[in-house]
Amino acid sequence: MSPNSVFDKSFSLIREYDEVKNRLGTPLKAYGRDHGGNREGRRNFIEHTQYTDQEDGTNRTRVRYNLEGKFGMAFVFAEVSSDMPSGEFVYILVQDKRNGHVITVVDNRSAIAATRMAGGSKEGMDAFSKLLGGGKS
């Protein structure tokens, strides 16, 4: 759950996502925030926040970094939870800097909320599945 591992794993997923490649162009380059005064080249600081979620008590890490392709630039927002298996994300969102358009690469927020409402039990998840699936098994 370190910010750099969230950065690396999320960028590897984004790099393969066709909608992002079509909008920004290839090759894609990811980097952190500029720091270090007037010199360029010091963009390896990944903005991050580590917090405990108020609703489920899990530890979470949220990162924000820059993405650049041949046709444009974007912000990336990614979050992981301590409850999820390694390599799984709460969400990965890419926001185009030109017009604010958001591309959703991964979004598990509703699944996490459904699991929480079902109490984490298999019976509760089956009930939610039937409810959301129109009663079909």
Automatic annotation (TrEMBL):
Record localization: Mitochondrion inner membrane; Mitochondrion membrane
Keyword match Transit peptide: yes
Record keywords, A-Z: Membrane, Mitochondrion, Mitochondrion inner membrane, Protein transport, Transit peptide, Translocation, Transmembrane, Transmembrane helix, Transport
Gene Ontology terms: biological process: protein import into mitochondrial matrix
Cellular component, GO annotation: TIM23 mitochondrial import inner membrane translocase complex
Classification via Pfam families: TIM21 (PF08294)
Entry keyword tRNA processing: no
Bilayer topology: Single-pass membrane protein
Family stated for the protein in its record: Belongs to the TIM21 family.
Subunit structure: Component of the TIM23 complex.
Known role: Essential component of the TIM23 complex, a complex that mediates the translocation of transit peptide-containing proteins across the mitochondrial inner membrane.
Name of this protein: Mitochondrial import inner membrane translocase subunit Tim21
